[in-house]
């Protein structure tokens, strides 16, 4: 009965959207654009699984090595130890960058939507540089959590009381805070890095909505996660899943037109291949370590990775190896669980 009425209301909503004026459609679009970014899964658990399995693989290697050394003698043992060290060196190359304790921030709070690609870009940066942060999940209807702010979008990062807005600007400013003292080339005007960071904001992010809402089952898959992980009241949670999925299905068709996309999957695969071509055989765009463009691409793709579209992307393109290296490099989330 309840399901029936929800479906009925979502189909009236769809009809309403189809019949609405351009101005009304913009309002629908705005309402559900906000909900639309609630897509994806917490990459933390898969990363934890990954690092745990790498650790257990290494310890299994060590335990095998010691048995081997007992039976074959010191020479063999030395070779195995050398082999394991090589594994460790490779693992180290993919490790996160640690901010020195004297540069640590006292209080970092991220106002976000769990699956917003821009918020995930900031999280990838904070996780990679191991900056501990608290998260405030904003309710898109009303946004009372950011009432204090004139800027009404997320992410907003409050660093020791100072609010920073806009994902790329936040990363630039945080980068400068760290780099000034660290004297490394983390924030550079490197043309390649800047160019690909822009590509993420101007091109890659626009591939997401048309893909995750491309048909009713993918739209429902996306909104199931959104409903269960966002900050919604009991009633909002149920209406968001069905009404949101129905609305975004239609909105995504409009977005396809706006961004000149004919086949959304092909466009997503094409973007993934373009990125792999840009790597030009390197582990990361930054070389042996990720740079800010690597972190930006990884951040916006992370929310869709476990959805149908993300799985298809990894299955049908060459991006998977780089993505796995990024998971290892970014490592565990530095989010403070409250
Ligand atoms: N250029 C901004 C875009 C931020 C943005 O559009 N955020 C969306 C969530 S993904 C938002 O807050 N939308 C709220 C709204 O449009 O009312 C950034 O990079 O941070």
UniProtKB/TrEMBL annotation:
SUPFAM superfamilies: GST C-terminal domain-like, Thioredoxin-like. It is an enzyme of class 5 (isomerase). One of its GO terms (biological process) is fatty acid biosynthetic process. It is found in: Endomembrane system. It catalyses: prostaglandin H2 = prostaglandin E2; prostaglandin H2 = (12S)-hydroxy-(5Z,8E,10E)-heptadecatrienoate + malonaldehyde. It is a single-pass membrane protein. Pathway: Lipid metabolism; prostaglandin biosynthesis. Gene3D superfamilies: 1.20.1050.10, Glutaredoxin (3.40.30.10). GO terms for cellular component: endomembrane system; mitochondrion. GO terms for molecular function: prostaglandin-E synthase activity. Belongs to the GST superfamily. This is Prostaglandin E synthase 2. It comes from Tagetes erecta (African marigold).
